[in-house]
Write a structure and sequence with these properties.
Blueprint: H1 4-8, H2 19-27, H3 30-43, H4 45-52, H5 62-76, E1 81-82, E2 88-89, H6 94-103, H7 109-130, H8 133-153, H9 158-171, H10 178-184, H11 190-201, H12 204-208, H13 218-225, H14 229-243, H15 246-255, H16 259-273, H17 278-295, H18 298-311, H19 315-328, H20 331-344, H21 365-371, H22 383-393, H23 396-408, H24 421-427, H25 433-450, H26 453-472, H27 476-489, H28 494-500
Antiparallel strand pairs: 1-2
Helix pairs in contact: 3-4, 5-6, 5-7, 7-8, 8-10, 9-10, 9-11, 11-13, 13-14, 14-15, 15-16, 15-17, 16-17, 17-18, 18-19, 18-21, 22-23, 24-25, 25-26, 26-27, 26-28
């Protein structure tokens, strides 16, 4: 593809390749270079033409470049089309990205940013319409990276650059703007953020809506970054009704040691966000747990972790429950109750023999929403999670039991029943070697049938484990016979036979 700039410019003159001249130019400040070029243009028009490598009539017209870029952008701002296989595919945005990147050094900040913003809005609209968050999210991320490059190369002062970035984030439909988040987190002097706060305060756009769809209060954020904490807290409090910005307010209060105020706002925030923005409810409860940890309130922290596990069982939520219960010396009571919950769905405080106080209603906010759903009990037993916990706790009979159940109901694991085979084979090799042998054989044979070089390598790794275990059991001859049978059965798989030489 021919660049827009290439269409209008001629080759660089050889004089610019002169090392001493190039070094001298690179050491000059930007302002001095601009003054020098302007003076050269006035005093020596013919030299200016030579150094620029162009005739006056061939000079690059910024408006023409933007017009050409706009046309290219319009050509890709269309609905997805079907490829030759009949699959819907997004347009190719990467050529227009390359053109934008070439224009960044020319100082066309505002006009370039307008094109990028239009492209981002289009990409996010397509993401919503076609539910292609991954595909379009990656493309949006590339455009946000371009936006950051434009901002960094811009002649705007730092405060205006930050406001540009904030405007882009406020307009974002999805959390695709991580590049802008990183840009805003770069270290800057507090006085820059003071300017940001002042300009945002008097911004017409901000007066229409002082937040974005994530509930960020940007004036308060700028005040906090300018190290005027008390003013920031006051502004967060003022904006709560419109922004629901409880999370940054609570973070700031915790950092300032004002824990009681933080707790009060958490309770208020949970009530306000539980239906409108449940993800904010979850974050507020996590902040409450931080306060419990700071105060060493282990029973309250245990309640928090227990409710999170019951709401969303996994090893990442199981481990904090165990660690806190150990600190409280109640793990022997809690452990079997968690196992029963994974098998039946019955909440621990409804079980016989449970004498630990029930968590408060605030902690149960999200859990009760899940329990109320009609299909709550139909999810149980949670076979894959029960197997994960058995592996973690090294409960050999349970490992075998739940691994077999997983293979009986192969849809019980998101990643498939085979995803646990390796862990189980290694875990029970001493306790139940026959079980390990069956798994290693099944794994090896399934890898062979895939028919690819990488799968043959994995099959040989399984056979190596099989040989080691059978030799340990005094059954080396049986393994040799099995291996000979594999060679005969798969004699047409030459790559497999070659891979076997590495055994």
């Amino acid at each position: 593809m021919t660049s827009l700039i290439d269409k209008k410019s001629s080759p660089k003159p050889a004089v610019l390749d002169n090392p001493p001249l190039k070094l001298w130019l690179e050491l000059k400040p930007k302002e001095e270079l601009i003054d020098l070029l302007l003076e050269m243009n006035q005093r020596f028009p013919q030299a200016a033409e030579y150094l620029g490598g162009t005739k006056k009539s061939d000079k690059i017209d910024p408006d023409e470049l933007i017009s050409g870029l706009r046309a290219e952008a319009d050509s890709v701002m269309v609905d997805p089309e079907r490829d030759y296989r009949g699959r819907m595919t997004p347009p190719n945005y990467y050529d227009v990205m390359a053109e934008i990147e070439k224009l960044v050094p020319l100082g066309l900040d505002e006009k370039l940013m307008e094109v990028v913003v239009d492209l981002i809005e289009h990409v996010e609209e397509m993401s919503q319409e076609y539910h292609w968050v991954d595909e379009y999210g990656e493309i949006a991320g590339e455009f946000y990276s371009l936006a950051v490059k434009i901002l960094k190369a811009s002649s705007l002062d730092e405060a205006d650059k930050i406001i540009w970035a904030i405007d882009l984030i406020r307009a974002s439909s999805y959390d695709m703007s991580s590049q802008l988040d990183r840009y805003l987190k770069e270290n800057r002097p507090p006085e820059v953020y003071s300017q940001v706060a002042e300009r945002l305060e008097h911004s017409d756009k901000l007066n229409e809506d002082s937040s974005d769809h994530y509930g960020n209060s940007w004036v308060a954020w700028a005040l906090e970054k300018s190290e005027r904490k008390d003013l920031a807290i006051s502004r967060y409090e003022k904006d709560l009704e419109s922004t629901l910005s409880y999370q940054p307010l609570v973070d700031l209060l915790i950092a300032e040691g004002r824990l009681t105020e933080a707790e009060n706002y958490i309770e208020q925030g949970v009530q306000k966000t539980r239906h409108a923005k449940p993800y904010l409810t979850s974050r507020l409860l996590e902040q409450r747990a931080r306060i419990f940890e700071v105060r060493r309130q282990w029973p309250e922290l245990f309640d928090h972790y227990l409710c999170r596990f019951l709401e969303s069982p996994s090893l990442s939520t199981y481990n904090p429950v165990r660690e806190t219960a150990v600190k409280m010396d109640i793990w022997p009571k809690v452990r079997p109750a968690l196992f029963d919950f994974l098998e039946t769905g019955l909440l621990p405080w409804l079980m016989k023999g449970w004498d630990i106080p029930q968590p408060d209603q605030l902690e149960q906010t999200e859990l009760l929403e899940s329990v109320r759903k009609a299909n709550w009990l139909s999810r149980f037993p949670l076979v894959a999670y029960r197997l994960e916990v058995a592996l973690l706790e090294k409960e050999m009979p349970d490992i075998i039991k739940w691994h077999e159940k997983l293979h009986e109901n192969r849809s019980a694991s998101l990643y498939g029943a085979d995803s646990f085979d390796l862990q189980v084979a290694q875990a029970v090799r001493d306790y139940a070697p026959e079980k390990s042998l069956v798994i290693w054989k099944r794994m090896a044979e399934s890898k062979i049938l895939v028919g690819k070089k990488y799968s043959y390598s994995k099959a040989v790794a399984c056979l190596r484990n099989l040989r080691e275990l059978m030799s340990k059991l005094g059954r080396k001859a049986e393994f040799d016979k099995y291996l000979a049978e594999l060679r005969v059965i798969h004699k047409r798989r030459r790559l497999f036979l070659v891979e076997l030489l590495q055994l």
